[in-house]
Specification:
Its EC number is 3.2.1.40. It catalyses: Hydrolysis of terminal non-reducing alpha-L-rhamnose residues in alpha-L-rhamnosides. By secondary structure, this protein is of the alpha+beta class. Strands 16, 22, 23, 27, 28, 29, 30, 33, 34, 35 and 36 form an 11-stranded mixed sheet that branches. Strands 2, 4, 5, 6, 8, 9 and 10 form a 7-stranded mixed sheet that branches. Strands 15-14-18-12-21-24 form a 6-stranded antiparallel sheet, with no helix packed on it.
């Protein structure tokens, strides 16, 4: 047997000779023998969240990540304990799984004694690995939500006014005329209670529609905005759970709330922008607080007719028109215990939707931008600020004025030729307004609306002879606060800028719904979910947002099975018949997103929860097909043709719709088999074969090895989804590359086709064409938008001023940055990146590239510094990686260890790596 010293001596000799496996040598840096960190359990998740308050099940799932500085670490066994207390005493244990010999660390379901609603529990995880290390997690807490209506006890929905049934309109037609109904005041509510004993626990369950801000003793209970998230309100609404244990004071306490309309009600007011006329009802509140005292007694506080209500100082609130605040209506201390509310009216009891605990991260202010430039006009009464970044957000202001003075702010993406904000193509008029109640300095920001903007014009309107002064102003960028889990940086300045351009469009359209734009529509158009899903996932923890998106689709699905193009569906667009409601490329997110999310996160609930919707949608598409061909919808939306962008111009109608239909069926075969639905799988397979034959009979031109018009999209989509006969695949691919080259590598594919074009070129090792198509700024594309001054991805390839200048529907190149230039891709048979590859491309054109993202198992990192001949790799515990590098000689300073070689060919060598951090030098 070789001793350690003999092994080291042998490895040193190999280094000197430089010959291993046919002149290929790889030495990997190992950690020192002393001071090595032990195994640890990190990031324990309950239903996808850490320490969640308000989960929607009594059988939660548990996941965790592991960390170790050793190499090739795999979990060998786990043990889960769930307890009623942090002591984990035997009498408190509800579940002890005992030691289970398994690698699984994701999505393990609770199997203990029944849990109760509205109750806190505690969990800890024990793990044993293949290095004989054992670790125990920190204790995590989770709180079950109120799952049934009776769990709310005596809590009632309360309102100031109630919308007549004749005016309730949860799904208006886009062509319906503006209803000039009476104006309804927004409400505020308050309730005072006495606290005479010490509180050991206080949990609040709060629903306020459309949005609310909750205060206790005059202080906000959180820093979220636009709470709760948007839903299909005729089906359900969200409530939010808070731990208020430390917020109470002895004696008198006052609970208060402001409400805004959100998407629950779009006020029909002349002189303000109104995209559509949805009306589920007027703002309302439902609340339950459970206080448990140290003596074991409890008190329950609920919303009921005993609450007081008053006209809000927010005099106008609209997702599309802006927000007005009149500080003269109520004093600043209206929500404090000292305020006298005897003249307020009693709240009215009303009804409301079914409630579900919000299980996505809240929207918050995530970044602030100070002005980089300003221009004054009208003697200083009009100031235009440039914040330097187009982003979703609101303004936050500090200003000094006198009673009755008015400050009005118009945000905008672009400026007119004379330097004024232009809202012409982003929803107009939209503005914020504040009226002073008294002389002095105030700080203010709107609460229940937002806009996409880079510029803001501030108009100062004094009531008297004294001037109003702007002391400070910022653009406060709001987005969903889910964690950013990925990064990309390279030696290529243009690609870095493009990644930033796309990233800002994602952030600006990621609220509680993935929107198309943060201004004129703010609607959840569905095609971007499956087309941009991988790009989003490489950068953000989108698991819960995608689960919500699929839930929105389920609740928006029609009785005949149609999944409309928007979810939640707040308006039924009837322009051009069903063109803007029934596009298979959009509705198919109901299937494709579910599959992609399952593959990415390893959570089978993405399939099981949505299977009924998926099968109903497949059946619906079957009723629309003629000879197995679908022709409805928008096609390759916003492709680059001779006309103004919009409905597909270059691709033969039916190609994209039928190709997506085929892809749906192909995925449904796999989904049905995974879920044990064998008969369904056979049905889908038979239909898939029929669509294959019909598509090729209808669109394939064998003499030219082309489909339809032969556009980039018409050739790429059939190749990607598998519609090209095997014997013709190479010829059709060559036709595609010839078409691209003959067009001087200019891109023409639109919203639907562009991702498939990139995927087909990448999978066939033509990343050089992707590089050539996108690494320039002299024609429509990403670089062209940057050259025109864009700071977020625009709706059109040409960055037109007459469309949205903050859209993420065309951001597919971001995925290639991570999978192509960075080289990180999951193995075909893997889920949750249990097994993945790192195979970077374009090594000759791009010298350096650093990429990372947090997979469900932990951080994956790859840094190639070719300028230094250096590679750094990090692989999380419980995962395996196949690293693909150019053929050559590799070595490293320090202690060395051998690695299994998987494959060697003329161009590259593949190595199989277990977990750990590696530094490789060429």
């Amino acid at each position: 047997m070789n001793t350690v010293g003999e092994k080291r001596k042998r490895m040193k000799n190999i280094v000197k000779q430089g010959i291993v496996l046919g002149s290929i040598f790889l030495l990997l840096l190992a950690m020192p023998l002393v001071g090595m960190a032990k195994l640890s359990v990190t990031r324990v998740l309950i239903e996808g969240r850490e320490n969640p308050l308000g989960i929607n099940t009594l059988k939660p799932s548990f996941s965790w990540q592991l960390h170790s500085d050793k190499f090739d670490v795999q979990q060998q066994a786990y043990r889960i304990e769930v307890s009623k207390s942090t002591r984990f005493a035997k009498q408190d244990l509800l579940w002890d799984s005992q030691w289970v010999a398994a690698e699984q660390s994701l999505n393990l379901l609770y199997q203990g004694n029944p849990l109760a609603t509205g109750t806190s529990y505690y969990i800890r995880i024990h793990v044993r690995d293949n290095k004989k290390e054992t670790a125990t997690s920190a204790v995590q807490r989770f709180h079950t939500g109120l799952l049934q209506a009776q769990d709310w006890g005596n809590a009632r929905w309360i309102a100031k006014d109630i919308l007549p049934d004749s005016l309730v309109n949860p799904l208006p037609l886009s062509s319906s005329k503006l209803r000039l109904d009476k104006s309804y005041d927004l409400p505020v509510f308050r309730k005072s209670v006495q606290v005479k004993k010490k509180i050991s626990s206080s949990i609040a369950y709060v629903a306020g529609l459309g949005h609310y801000e909750l205060l206790l003793n005059g202080k906000r209970v959180d820093d979220a905005v636009l709470q709760p998230g948007w839903t299909k309100y005729d089906k359900e609404a969200y409530y939010v759970v808070y731990d208020l244990t430390q917020a109470w004071q002895q004696g008198k306490n006052t609970i208060a709330a402001l409400l805004g309309n959100g998407f629950y009600y779009i006020p029909p007011i002349k002189g303000r922008f109104q995209k559509h006329k949805v009306a589920f009802g007027l703002p309302k509140l439902k609340l339950k607080i459970v206080n448990i005292y140290t003596d074991g007694t409890q008190e329950i506080i609920v919303s009921d007719a005993g609450w007081k209500t008053h006209r809000s100082p927010i005099t106008f609130s609209s997702m599309y028109g802006g927000e007005d605040y009149d500080a003269r209506i109520l004093p600043d201390h209206w929500s404090a215990p000292v305020y006298d509310d005897r003249n307020w009216q009693q709240a009215r009891i009303t009804d409301g939707p079914h409630l579900r605990a919000q299980d996505i991260d809240p929207v918050k202010i995530m970044q602030r931008f100070a002005p980089v430039e300003l221009q004054q006009a009208d003697g200083g009464k009009r100031i235009t600020y440039d914040f330097g970044q187009n982003a979703s957000g609101i303004v936050t202001m500090q200003m000094t004025g006198q009673a009755g003075d008015t400050v009005r702010v118009y945000p905008a993406e672009l400026l007119t030729a004379d330097g004024r904000p232009s809202q012409k193509h982003s929803g107009s008029p939209y503005y914020y307004q504040y009226i002073f109640a008294k002389d002095g300095t105030v700080s203010w920001q709107p609460r229940f609306t937002y806009y996409g903007f880079r510029y803001a014009e501030v108009q100062l309107h004094p009531a008297g002879s004294k001037a109003v002064r702007m002391d400070a102003i910022q653009l406060a960028h709001i987005r969903n606060s889910t964690a950013q889990v990925g990064s990309f940086q390279s030696s290529d300045t243009l690609f870095n800028q493009i990644h930033g351009l796309i990233n800002w469009a994602i952030k600006s359209n990621m609220v509680s719904v993935f929107t198309d734009c943060p201004h004129r529509e703010k609607l959840g158009w569905l095609e971007q979910l499956h087309l941009m899903g991988p790009s989003v996932q490489f950068n953000f923890d989108a698991e819960r947002l995608f689960a919500k998106s699929l839930r929105d689709m389920r609740q928006s699905q029609t009785n005949d099975g149609l999944v409309p193009e928007i979810a939640p569906e707040y308006v039924q667009f009837d322009w051009g018949g069903d063109m803007f409601r029934d596009s298979p490329e959009w509705g198919s997110s109901s299937i494709i997103l579910g599959w992609y999310a399952y593959r990415w996160y390893g959570n089978k609930s993405f399939l099981a929860d949505n299977y009924a919707m998926m099968t109903r949608y497949i059946d619906y598409l079957g009723t629309k097909a003629k000879g197995h061909i679908l022709t409805q919808g928008l096609g390759d939306w916003y492709d680059l043709g001779p006309e103004r962008p919009g409905v597909s111009q270059l691709t033969t109608p039916g190609i994209t719709a039928t190709a997506i239909y085929y892809y749906d069926l192909k995925l449904m075969v796999d989904i049905a088999m995974l879920l044990g639905q064998k008969e369904d799988a056979e049905k889908f397979e038979t239909l898939r074969q029929a669509v294959f034959s019909a598509f090729n009979q209808q669109f394939y031109r064998p003499q030219e090895h082309s489909y339809g018009s032969g556009s980039q999209t018409a050739l790429a989509m059939p190749l990607y989804v598998g519609l090209v006969p095997q014997e013709a695949q190479q010829a059709v691919f060559e036709k595609l590359t010839t078409t691209v080259c003959q067009n001087d590598t200019a891109l023409t594919a639109g919203d639907i086709g562009h991702r498939y074009l990139l995927q087909v070129l990448h999978s066939n090792n033509r990343d050089d064409l992707i590089y050539a198509m996108h690494h320039r700024d002299d024609r429509p594309g990403y670089g062209y938008q940057l050259r025109k001054g864009a700071t977020a991805l625009t709706e059109s390839w040409a960055g037109l001023p007459n469309v949205s200048n903050n859209h993420f529907m065309l951001g597919h190149l971001m995925e290639w940055f991570h999978t192509g230039l960075g080289g990180i891709q999951q193995d075909a048979a893997s889920t949750a990146f249990k097994h993945f590859r790192i195979e970077p491309k374009m090594l000759d054109a791009l010298k350096d590239c650093e990429i990372s993202f947090r997979s469900p198992y932990g951080k994956i990192y790859f840094n190639r510094e070719q300028s230094k001949g250096n590679y750094q790799v990090e692989i999380p515990v419980n995962s395996q990686c196949t690293l693909v590098l150019p053929k050559g000689t590799y070595q490293v300073n320090g202690r060395a260890m051998e690695v299994q070689t998987v494959n060697v060919n003329e161009d590259h060598v593949e190595f199989k790596l277990g977990s750990g951090k590696y530094t490789i030098t060429q």
